[in-house]
User: Fold this.
Amino acid sequence: MPGKRLTMRKIREVLRLKFDFHLTNRKIAESVGAARSSIGEYLRRFESAGLPWPLPADLDDDRLEGLLFPAAAKPAEGSRPLPDWSYIHRELRKKAVTLMLLWEEYKSAYPEGYQYSQFCHLYHQWKRKIDPVMRQEHRAGEALFVDWAGMTIDIVNPATGDRRPASIFVAAMGASSYTYAEATPTQELCDWIGAHSRAFAFFGGVTELLVPDNTRTGVTKACFYEPDLNPTYLDMARHYDTAVLPTRVRKPKDKAKVENAVLVVERRILAQLRNQTFFSLAELNRRIRPLLDELNDRTFQKLAGSRRTLFEQIDKPALKALPAESYRFATWVKATVNIDYHIEVKGHYYSLPHKLIGKQVDVRYTDVTVECFRGNRPVASHRRSDKRGGHTTIKEHMPPSHRRWLQWTPERFIRWASKIGPNTAALIGDIIRSKPHPQQGFRAALGILRLEKSYDAERLESACGRARIIGAKSYRSVASILKHGLDKKTLPSATPKPLVIEHTNIRGSQYYH
Assistant:
């Protein structure tokens, strides 16, 4: 199909938005950042594959991809007649006429013609020249528009006098314009997600859609895990059973609601606080709240009632119920399972089934849990630990015989180390024996042995000897000794000689016999 194919994570999101939220293909395309023709193609492939919805729990990404995108036959050679796009466009205005129907009629007349995906792609290219401006309408409880205000307010450190700007998060209901605002320390992802949770609590429910300026709003560092759609934002949307529908780039009418709300917040709240000094974020938010209530209670100039009365009458009855618990901020990363069948998360090591050694997994961690997924299927779950260098190991993850798995055993590491020297072998043995499970020492042992590639065996042997004498039995210690050239200096004696002072006024030992 034309263009770059979406990731399987986003294709699953396309299916969720279509069958759980019943969104149009246009809105789904805007939500996931793809062409509308591509969305139609994915849905056609899903229907052709005969898959049920919801998808089976045991259907991982690899199998789903194989069902949706089977190997295609090579297209036949020859010219392809171009459809009459003016006719296609006129027919689409008629009730119940779809691109799929028009393509089937076209293929019936020209069997050698374009396939459905290319047919749609070419039509939308032609249509862009005449696409009219979309009129925006908001149903009750449908959309919540969110963004950061352009203005900031300084927070003063009472001890040093230093100032740091606090950002202002703004959320506005689509139908009633009922508004929420709060100050946050930064525009980082954690503050962006936290502000959403507090906004939902303020409104007492959840809208069908979330409409940010774009899906990266509030994220200052690009997410390497999946740059095209931030996984944490998507995870939060699923928790609250809502969908993210970002505004289109350079389409100001799409975000008129939130831009107006930001303008009103800046004029009615932030401007009134411009000459006040705040020493904490909590103090600033306590001052914002009564001004926010005043804004929502302010009577409209051209309509009856206020933002609050419209919200109570229109939006609030249509909101979805809040989940039992607020969303707990989660970070997503990718990790490769090491030879000791552990992965590292924030300095701590967590076990996975030994069959996944060398495989890449998706890791979702909060302040409480660490969850691991392989092909969208959970493979391990641990309670989060802040002990740096520690290991959390589930016995069931351990292999019945370590020799079966690439022969990574304590004996193999010691034999390898013995080729370098006795000090290296002794240090590796000490490190492995110091762990509750020998496999937990394999990573450090492997790191020490690989230092031979950067330094010669003689220097590594000397560094290991020094590390044993000073009791620094770790990879970092050996690497530091080599980096600073300490291995070239004379090793301190393990049993220092007693200090003897000779002087005519000092009695010798014979005096006491």
The longest helix spans residues 281-297. The CA atoms of residues 50 and 67 lie 9 Å apart.
